[in-house]
Write a structure and sequence with these properties.
By secondary structure, the protein is of the alpha/beta class. 45% of the residues lie in helices and 15% in strands. It contains 13 helices and 10 strands. The strands form 2 sheets. It has an 8-stranded parallel barrel with strand order 1-2-3-6-7-8-9-10, surrounded by 7 helices. A two-stranded antiparallel sheet has the order 4-5. The structure holds 1,3-dihydroxyacetonephosphate (13P). Residues 22, 138, 177, 260-262, 290-293 line the site of 1,3-dihydroxyacetonephosphate.
Amino acid sequence: MDKALLSKTAAAMVARGKGVLAVDESRGTCEKRFQSINVECTEESRRAYRGLLFATPGAEQFVSGVILFDETLRQKADDGTLFPAYLAKKGILPGIKVDKGAMDLALRPGEKVTEGLDGLRPRLAEYFKLGARFAKWRAVITIGDAIPSHACIYANAHALARYAALCQEASIVPMIEPEVLLDGSHTIERCEEVTEATLRATYAAMAAHNVSVEQLILKTSMVVSGKDCPRRTGVEEVAERTVRVLKRTVPAAQPGVVFLSGGQTDLDATAHLSAMNAMKGLPWPLTFSYSRALQNPALKAWSGKAANVAAAQKAFHHRAHMNGLAAQGKWKPELERQLA
Ligand code: 13P
């Protein structure tokens, strides 16, 4: 275990004004996204699309790292360089999604547990050799009538801790992602309560498994009301509740926290991040690790056509730039037009 490397990687992931691009969509999720633009999802179309994002001139000013899917880690850029080396040359850290997906939790209808621990140690050793310096594991917590259960929260926390320990042992920074889903009609108060319980359990499990919080990145959902909740909440309320929960649960010794976008609109994800960073006295850097909220406009602009690559890169650059400002609390709605 190379502690100096772990610390260096974690610090670089949350460097000021930068965040992480998630492009680790599984085959099925990628298929859905490509269907929305009428593009066939093949190994080559996935390579071409992801490659255009990585090749975006200047993206490295705002993007510290990229979370890849196993397939992408082994693919090559147009110039023939393997993607991990291509990214590293631009100063972007290659990361890898290592979980095998959220499966139904037995005897717990409506709840999931993430699998992928079996064989993870040799897989991590291979990923390190292939250039991955951080890894992601996503746990899914669903809010509903009488759920999440204690069993679901603890099963997921336990798996996250075992994965995180294996990562640190392999000198790979674990990005632990307990996602509280946006789906449902729950209130923001309920989301706050569930997020707090989830994070408490997650950090208790980290401690039990000797995971060092100094070399750990949390990827979390924000505290928001369910997407079918009739009461809409303002940007300030989301920011205040999210930071309150994080302060109660996340050790100050941790190098940083990143957020997923989770189905929020692109602008909401940016506005919420900026409002949090505008607060004084945060113990850790807060930044983005979005998939949809960074990629949506680029995917549409590309639409599978080589002639649209420059337009797609422009759209991606813009969202990365806006979120880079939000990571410093400097985003304003009018900048969306002024800097477009
Ligand atoms: P979204 O930002 O689209 O929620 O994706 C982030 C992610 O990595 C989910 O696991």
